[in-house]
Automatic annotation (TrEMBL), chain A:
<keyword id="KW-1003">Cell membrane</keyword>
<keyword id="KW-0997">Cell inner membrane</keyword>
<dbReference type="InterPro" id="IPR013563">
    <property type="entry name" value="Oligopep_ABC_C"/>
</dbReference>
<dbReference type="GO" id="GO:0015833">
    <property type="term" value="P:peptide transport"/>
</dbReference>
<dbReference type="InterPro" id="IPR017871">
    <property type="entry name" value="ABC_transporter-like_CS"/>
</dbReference>
From TrEMBL, chain B:
<keyword id="KW-0067">ATP-binding</keyword>
<dbReference type="InterPro" id="IPR013563">
    <property type="entry name" value="Oligopep_ABC_C"/>
</dbReference>
<dbReference type="InterPro" id="IPR017871">
    <property type="entry name" value="ABC_transporter-like_CS"/>
</dbReference>
<dbReference type="Pfam" id="PF08352">
    <property type="entry name" value="oligo_HPY"/>
</dbReference>
<dbReference type="GO" id="GO:0055085">
    <property type="term" value="P:transmembrane transport"/>
</dbReference>
Automatic annotation (TrEMBL), chain C:
<keyword id="KW-1003">Cell membrane</keyword>
<feature type="transmembrane region" description="Helical">
    <location>
        <begin position="241"/>
        <end position="267"/>
    </location>
</feature>
<dbReference type="InterPro" id="IPR045621">
    <property type="entry name" value="BPD_transp_1_N"/>
</dbReference>
<dbReference type="InterPro" id="IPR035906">
    <property type="entry name" value="MetI-like_sf"/>
</dbReference>
<feature type="transmembrane region" description="Helical">
    <location>
        <begin position="12"/>
        <end position="30"/>
    </location>
</feature>
Automatic annotation (TrEMBL), chain D:
<feature type="transmembrane region" description="Helical">
    <location>
        <begin position="297"/>
        <end position="327"/>
    </location>
</feature>
<feature type="transmembrane region" description="Helical">
    <location>
        <begin position="113"/>
        <end position="141"/>
    </location>
</feature>
<keyword id="KW-1003">Cell membrane</keyword>
<keyword id="KW-0812">Transmembrane</keyword>
<feature type="transmembrane region" description="Helical">
    <location>
        <begin position="31"/>
        <end position="52"/>
    </location>
</feature>
Length: 325, 332, 319, 384
């Protein structure tokens, strides 16, 4: 696992949220790697801990109530969890940048977008004002915003949803980071705009050969963008592999269930497969395999033993002993 | 080229919407004069057949939710007819409308906002049963029956909404709509706020209920995958206009309007083999406050020509059930 | 933009008109006649009362009285019933007396509550926050007059400086330094008192605004850019948290009259509040009504200013 | 159907009513609990106080004057030799001292507790009722427009009423009668005139003039223009001195905040899906208002009203202090303090005892209210 080729390596990360007398184990032992230049997807339903994992990489978990209980986040071999706050600030935005889900609320309404993009650059680099302006214009042009010179002076509310998300991406690109974490960047957008943004991310990634950690719940998006996929359920990664392995040969009941539950024209007339029940409350997770109450393959050991990762092929791992072969 | 017209063949139609318009005034200036109109719904025609599902598809801001509200008469239409089982209900008196209300119900998108947090789910469902002549006992039985029908155990009828998960709340919402035994349910994006695994449960539930009770659905959605799975007919809406109207099979096989085409090709498919460059439209949906003249889609249309910029375009009938609002098709 | 200002002005004038009507009605419909205030007073012979009524149009119907009154008010000819002095001159004099109290109090309020509130929000839940919270509850809850006496006892017994009135009586021609110190001592306690409630309420409000803003997504974005905490707090969060205070800034103007009645009467401070109090005691209707009218004008001007400020400060509002 | 049975679900969370949950959250705020305890203590004191200090022969007589025993500090024993047996304080000791007339401060404080309590509750009760009513109407029916004829008629009726009150009997009665005739006319006109075409002026009168929302919100603006304490002082000074007048005046001058709040709340609730659903089910307006919307809007109003009670108690104390409060000989905390201010160096307990009592009671309402507000705040709840 500690492959030196990895740009980022998350190892056994645990993040708990404390509330009164309960402990919500939002992220409960998550490990995955990102190699330079590849797009890794973190898929899962709401509340499975994917956003928390992403925020923990940048150490942006609000604390309290959030608490990092263990694990390592190795970025170029350095454990980000050991860094002090000032060193961490040098990583954020400069080496790892983030794009958030809601472009409207994620942009500060009282500053112009020029200010907000430029700010990220000035904090990490020494730039002349004229140079800075040029770079901001170029960034906006790169993300496909028409007449960028004028747009610099606009406030976020003057842009459309798609344009705001482009601005967010421009902000993330400002310091040429090695890794961009995109947390459901297209969920709040319309399909046509989503397609634009996905294409934009793909083209940027190819051009600048940076790595992308893409977080989503939409399997269609995953299939479209991912090199490798990590499927999360209830705070753990239940299956990982490349996109073809996951979509064509899923080896975990949850992944299988998700794929079978997708509606589509090709499934017309047939009943959709549905996973019974609901995602467990992270404070009251069932013992053993967290998926066993909803799993149709569950056997007796699933109720008591937390399953280990089983290897299915080159880089294809799944946390299910029953569907092993 | 006919201007509009749905096929008149089928007289047995649950709800026919004809030339429906709803404009919202925009007031400005010292005297708050009406400076312009947001043409949220600009003359649309729909037919909802009994036991069938008509999907209304479009991006946010295209006016689909306004259509839902106008049909339920929560907003008064400015123009047009709503013909429910042969009778125009636009000019009905309050009393008659109150009776008719029970024939059309709605299921909402947001499972959190759609249930009253201060009422138990049992009370929520009983609200619909209050108007009927039922004894307390009968009412309770009916309530329990409705809850079981949507897959919630009747024991939990004295629980409050916050104790339920999103999917369960959505089920309660469906049960509430069913409480008055409607014949038409307007589903306003009922599954888009739900996770995939829960979404499938609700879709199955809706389908089961349709089969059992013979309900008609007006299924409002932006998710073409769900629409393709669930609906019998599809109307594609853009800026207050219907752009294309067809049987689901036909629409997905042979989409004719450039907008429909763009929508369909923008949907990512969950198969890595089909990982082509997603075809995306340029730009965003223009503001409905001052829509472009001529074809509403002209600003983003890849095949736009001079004619589109000038003339308002009517429907062209391609086949019995397939209408398209585009010159290219009409010119054949 | 201009139509907004125009509409707002017209609306405020209409409001002012109704305020004048309502206050006039309240005063004149209440039982008791001003001419009956002091039947023991030998000046109030029946003839005197009649002359008095004539002079102030009290024998006319109510709406005529109303018209007379506001004609006099706008032409500046209005006089007090008690001493037949011009009301406007009187108010102006008292206003000048109240002004230093008001200014010192406002400065104290606004300079103290912001640092306290912001610090509380940033170190939420810490000892500083909790003690600030408790102290502000204490200050909100303490009756102003009681607090005044505590302060008087404290200052008089420990420092032996007189604090009642605007200056020590009979200090006369002492050195300017003594006079200045005397003035400052007299000014300080009433203005501190006037400010305490404000500081407590405002700092709580600053704190909650700041907490609200700190939870917003754009603060997280700012952190994710790698900005140092100071820049996150004081640039991104504070700028947004300050927006609602623009509204409050317009609302301090009416504080000139409203809150000072009790404090001014305890400290025998010859300001507007005390004058209003005396006018009420004497049923001096022209003074009461004029004070009321001035107060209403101040409120309306204050809200107008804050509307305008909001336009300037919040980029989302463009007309 | 079999599949539906399969997915039959019961709720996830353990059963807990809203109230229990609220209490759970409230309990964590120690200051708020302290506030609640003090409030209960104060409530009991006030009730016991009003029982023990009223009647012909009260157990504690707050009005008993003993000039020879004046200005005794707290915990002094009375000089039994100089006093009549009836004059000896019930506890055999001046628990809180005596005032300048030798009255027992403890008895007077007991009596005053009831005044503070009732003034606080009744005044806030009035303001909350008015506020909810006005705010509810503005928020729910606000978009409706009043017609010109309705405005004219209400003006006619109000002027008539005022003129009648002022003694201009004939014109007043005339206007009132004319107004009522028009009202009857317009009720029946629908039937009478149903078939005829109406004259133009009549239709003009039936045009919408101004929205109800505008009227109510402008009324709020007008009320906000008055400096509150000054207005209360003026009105209280003009009216005959009585506790009830004070309560009513404080109540009627402080409803604006509630109105604004309830209106805002109703406006946002009106757009909520569950209200839309109720409308779609054909539920009537009043049931929607009272069954569906009010329970969702009322909790924050009640919270802010606890803080309003604190403010009302302070206002009453201020009025009493200025000599406009509850008329003597009835004791209130404000006038005990006011009476004692002349002796602040000789008998500081006359200032401190009522002052601290007011402080503690007001503080308890504030803490209690803030605690409730925190417990109700959904944002804090999410964070746990």
């Amino acid at each position: 696992m500690t492959d030196s080729k990895n740009l980022l390596s998350v190892q056994d990360l645990k993040v708990y949220f404390r509330a009164k007398d309960q402990v919500a184990r939002a992220v409960d032992g998550v490990s995955f790697d990102i190699r330079p230049g590849e797009t890794v997807c973190l898929v899962g339903e709401s509340g499975c801990g994917k956003t928390v994992s992403a925020l923990t990489i940048l150490r942006l978990i609000p604390s309290p109530p959030g608490e990092i209980m263990g694990g390592r986040v190795l970025f170029n071999g350095v454990d980000l969890l050991d860094l002090d706050e000032t060193d961490m600030q040098k990583i954020r935005g400069n080496h790892i940048a983030m794009v958030f889900q809601e472009p409207l609320t994620s942009l500060n309404p009282v500053f112009t977008i020029g200010d907000q993009i430029g700010e990220g650059i000035t904090i990490h680099e020494q730039v002349e004002p004229e140079e800075l302006r040029k770079r901001c214009v170029q960034l906006l042009r790169d993300v496909g915003i028409p007449s960028p010179e004028q747009r610099l002076k606009d406030y976020p509310h003057q842009l459309s949803g798609g344009q705001r998300q482009r601005v967010m991406i421009a902000m993330a690109l400002a310091c040429n980071p090695d890794l961009i974490i995109a947390d459901e960047p297209t969920t709040a957008l319309d399909v046509t705009v989503q397609a634009q943004i996905l294409n934009l991310i793909k083209s940027i990634q190819q051009k600048a050969s940076m790595s992308v950690l893409y977080i989503t719940h939409d399997l269609g998006v995953v299939a479209n963008i991912a090199d490798r996929v990590n499927v999360m359920y209830a705070g753990v990664i239940v299956e990982m592999g490349d996109a073809y392995q996951i979509f064509q040969n899923p080896r975990h009941p949850y992944t299988k269930g998700l794929l079978a539950a997708l509606p589509g024209r090709s499934r017309r007339g047939r009943r959709l497969h549905s996973i019974p029940g609901a995602v467990p409350n992270p404070a009251f997770k069932p013992p053993g395999c967290p998926f066993h109450p909803r799993c149709s393959f569950a056997i007796e050991t699933c109720k008591t033993r937390f399953p280990e990762m089983c290897k299915h092929g080159d880089g294809h791992l799944s946390r299910c002993p029953v569907l092993k072969d | 080229m006919t201007n509009h017209k749905l096929p008149i063949t089928n007289q047995n139609i649950t709800l026919r919407v004809e030339g429906l318009k709803k404009y919202f005034p925009v007031r400005r200036g010292f005297f708050q004069r009406t400076a312009g109109w947001i043409k949220a719904v600009d003359g649309i025609d729909l037919d909802i057949e009994p036991g069938k599902t008509l999907a209304l598809v479009g991006e946010s801001g295209c006016g689909k939710s306004t259509v839902a509200k106008v049909i339920l008469r929560l907003i008064e239409p400015d123009e047009g007819k709503l013909i429910y089982k042969g009778n125009d209900i636009v000019n009905l008196s309050h009393k008659k409308m109150k009776h008719l209300r029970k024939e059309m119900q709605i299921v909402f998108q947001d499972p959190f906002g759609s249930l009253n947090p201060r009422m138990t789910v049992g009370q929520t469902i009983e609200e619909g049963l209050r108007g009927m002549d039922l004894s307390k006992r009968e009412r309770r039985d009916r309530r329990d029956e409705l809850l079981e029908m949507v897959g919630i155990s009747a024991i939990s009828s004295d629980r409050y909404p916050h104790e339920f998960s999103g999917g369960q709340r959505q089920r309660v919402g469906v049960a509430r709509a069913l409480s008055v035994s409607p014949s038409l349910i307007i589903c306003d994006e009922p599954v888009s706020a739900l996770d995939v695994s829960i979404q499938a449960q609700i879709i199955n539930l809706l389908k089961d209920l349709q089969d059992r009770l013979g309900l008609s659905y007006l299924f409002i959605s932006h998710d073409l995958n769900v629409v393709g799975y669930l609906s019998d007919k599809v109307a594609v809406m853009y800026l207050g206009h219907i752009m294309e109207y067809a049987n689901t099979e036909e629409l997905f096989e042979t989409p004719l309007h450039p907008y429909t085409l763009a929508l369909l090709s923008a949907v990512p498919v969950a198969e890595p083999d089909k990982r082509l460059e997603l075809k995306s439209l340029s730009g965003d949906v223009p503001s409905p406050l001052d829509p472009p003249p001529g074809c509403k889609f002209q600003g983003r249309c890849p095949q736009v020509e001079e004619r589109c910029r000038e003339e308002e375009i009517g429907f062209a009938r391609v086949s019995e059930d397939h209408l398209v609002r585009c010159w290219k098709v009409g010119g054949r | 933009m201009f139509s907004f200002i125009g509409r707002s002005i017209v609306q405020k004038i209409i409001t002012l008109f109704f305020v004048s009507v309502v206050s006039f009605l309240i005063i004149h419909l209440a039982p008791g006649e001003p001419s009956q205030v002091d039947p023991m007073n030998p000046k109030f012979t029946p003839e005197m009362v009649e002359r008095f009524q004539k002079e102030f149009h009290l024998d006319k119907p109510l709406y005529v009285q109303y018209l007379y009154f506001y004609r006099d008010l706008f032409t500046g000819k209005i006089v007090s019933w008690k001493d037949s002095q011009s009301v406007l001159t009187k108010i102006w004099e008292r206003f000048l007396n109240s002004l230093p109290l008001f200014i010192v109090g406002t400065i104290l309020t606004w300079t103290l509550s912001f640092p306290v509130g912001i610090r509380s929000a940033i170190f939420r839940g810490g000892i500083y926050d909790r003690s600030a919270t408790f102290v502000s509850y204490l200050l909100i809850s303490i009756p102003g007059f009681f607090f005044a006496y505590i302060l008087i006892i404290l200052v008089v017994t420990t420092l032996h400086v007189p604090v009642i009135g605007m200056e020590t009586f009979g200090l006369g021609a002492s050195s300017w330094g003594t006079t200045l110190m005397d003035r400052i001592w007299h000014l300080l306690i009433p203005s501190v008192l006037g400010a305490t409630g404000g500081i407590a309420v405002l700092s709580r409000y600053v704190r909650s605004q700041m907490l609200e803003v700190e939870g917003q997504d754009y603060v997280r974005t700012a952190k994710a850019k790698g900005l140092p905490p100071e820049q996150v707090h004081y640039k991104h969060a504070l700028r947004n948290a300050l927006l609602p205070f623009v509204t409050m800034f317009g609302l301090i103007l009416p504080g000139l009259i409203g809150g000072s009645v009790i404090i001014e009467s305890i400290f025998s401070w010859p300001g507007m509040g005390r004058m209003a109090y005396e006018a009420i005691l004497a049923r001096d209707y022209p003074v009461i009504l004029t004070v009321n009218f001035v107060a209403a004008v101040l409120v309306l001007v204050g809200t107008f200013i804050s509307d305008l400020l909001y336009l300037v400060v919040d980029p989302r509002i463009r007309l | 159907m079999t599949n539906t049975q399969q997915t039959l679900e019961s709720p996830l969370a353990p059963k807990q009513t809203r109230l229990e949950e609220l209490w759970e959250l409230f309990r964590q705020n120690r200051l708020a609990i302290l506030g609640l305890i003090i409030f209960l203590f104060f409530l009991i004191t006030a009730i016991i106080g009003v029982i023990l200090t009223s009647g012909q022969d009260p157990v504690f007589d707050p009005a008993m004057i003993r000039l020879q025993e004046k200005l005794l500090p707290p915990l002094t024993r009375p000089n039994i030799e100089t006093l009549q047996p009836a004059e000896i304080p019930t506890l055999g000791i001046y628990l809180l001292g005596t005032d300048d007339l030798g009255r027992d401060v403890f008895s007077r404080m007991l009596q005053g507790a009831w005044v503070s309590l009732t003034v606080g509750f009744v005044a806030v009760g009035i303001s909350v009722l008015v506020g909810i009513f006005m705010g509810g109407i503005a928020g729910y029916f606000g978009q409706g427009h009043l017609r010109y004829d309705q405005i004219i008629i209400s003006c006619v009726l109000i002027t008539g009423g005022i003129l009648l009150a002022l003694g201009t009997t004939y014109t007043g009665v005339g206007l009132l009668v004319a107004g009522h005739i028009y009202i009857f006319f317009s009720i029946f006109s629908k039937k009478i005139l149903a078939r005829r075409t109406l004259p133009k002026w009549f239709n003009l009168l039936h045009r919408g003039a101004i929205s109800i929302d505008t009227i109510i919100m402008r009324a709020v603006d007008i009320m906000l223009c008055f400096p509150t304490f000054f207005l209360i002082l003026t009105v209280v000074a003009l009216l005959p001195a009585s506790m009830y007048n004070i309560m009513i005046v404080i109540g009627l001058t402080s409803w604006m905040g509630t109105t604004r709040f309830v209106r805002a709340e109703f406006l946002s609730l009106r757009e909520q899906d569950f209200v839309t659903a109720a409308k779609a089910l054909g539920v009537g307006h009043f049931r929607i208002i009272f069954r569906h919307m009010m329970p969702n809007a009322i909790a924050p109003v009640l919270v802010s009203s606890t803080i309003g009670i604190a403010m009302a108690i302070l206002t009453e104390a201020g009025l009493s202090f200025l000599g406009f409060g509850v008329p003597p000989p009835h004791a209130t905390w404000g006038n005990i303090l006011s009476d004692g201010k002349r002796f602040i160096f000789d008998a500081p307990w006359l200032t401190f005892i009522p002052g601290i009592a007011i402080l503690i009671v007001v503080l308890c309402f504030n803490l209690f209210g803030e605690g409730l507000r925190d417990a109700l705040n959904p944002k804090l709840r999410e964070k746990g």
